[in-house]
Specification:
Helix content of chain A: under 10%
Order of helices and strands of chain A: EEEEEEEEEEE
Strand content of chain A: over 45%
Order of helices and strands of chain B: EEEEEEEEEEEE
Distance between the termini of chain A: 37 Å
Distance between the termini of chain B: 41 Å
Largest sheet of chain A: 7 strands, mixed
Helix content of chain B: under 10%
Largest sheet of chain B: 6 strands, mixed
Low-confidence stretches of chain A: none
Radius of gyration of chain A: 13 Å
Oligomer: heterodimer
Structural class of chain A: mainly beta
Mean pLDDT of chain A: 95
Structural class of chain B: mainly beta
Number of helices of chain B: 0
Number of strands of chain A: 11
Low-confidence stretches of chain B: none
Chain lengths: 114, 113
């Protein structure tokens, strides 16, 4: 079965650079979520989209923005990168209540800011 | 406020032992979902099990079983006859009215051969 696809898997950036992370949800899934997992920590919710509209926002820095496109893929844009942005970034998708709100996660993008 | 507590930071067992991972949650929502996810050393997050707040029936799925008790706000997860491949960090998570996952801090399970 198709899973959530994230690219790139690894990304190395310098401080103050920008980064774009991409997410391709499971086909037919209408909701996309982004989470950030720092080293040794649990994943923290950043932002979500339902049917291409932003549905909820967590503790996402103003330097970050995200959107969901007409083909349902989503991109997380990160500007003015800081050392503290180094983390594993997960995208998840779901069918909402149709499937018991189960969120399926991609393999993640490991961002290292030097 | 919503909160998930996994008091066990690390657990070490020998292969074939049974192991139970504890999870206690807090929520004011009347409808909510509880999940267990597995994060192996490779880093991905793998969905394991889900339970909604209206269904306290406990189930067994292969070597996995779970015990959901609303009276104590607990959602414990048991692996029977553990294997080395079960070594991972296990996260308990809560999804309430906000429709986003609140994770516990995770339990690192090490299964020794």
């Amino acid at each position: 079965a198709a899973g959530v696809i994230q690219s790139p898997r690894h990304l190395i950036k310098e401080k103050r650079e920008t980064a774009t992370l991409k997410c391709y949800p499971i086909p037919r899934h209408d909701t996309v979520y982004w989470y950030q997992q720092g080293p040794g920590q649990d994943p923290q919710f950043l932002i979500s989209f339902y049917e291409k509209m932003q549905s909820d926002k967590g503790s996402i820095p103003d330097r970050f923005s995200a959107q969901q496109f007409s083909d349902y893929h989503s991109e997380l844009n990160m500007s003015s990168l800081e050392l503290g942005d180094s983390a594993l970034y997960f995208c998840a998708s779901s069918l909402g209540l149709q499937e018991g709100n189960i969120q399926y996660f991609g393999a993640g993008t490991r961002l290292s800011v030097l | 406020a919503q909160k998930v507590t996994q008091a066990q930071t690390e657990i070490s067992v020998v292969e074939k032992e049974d192991v139970t991972l504890d999870c206690v949650y807090e929520t004011r929502d009347t409808t909510y979902y509880l999940f267990w996810y597995k994060q192996p050393p490779s880093g991905e997050l793998v969905f394991l099990i889900r339970r909604n707040s209206f269904d306290e029936q406990n189930e067994i799925s292969g070597r996995y079983s779970w015990n959901f008790q609303k009276s104590t706000s607990s959602f414990n997860f048991t692996i029977t006859a553990s294997q080395v491949v079960d070594s991972a960090v296990y996260f308990c998570a809560l999804d309430g009215a906000t429709n986003k996952l609140i994770f516990g801090t995770g339990t690192l399970l090490a299964v020794q051969p």
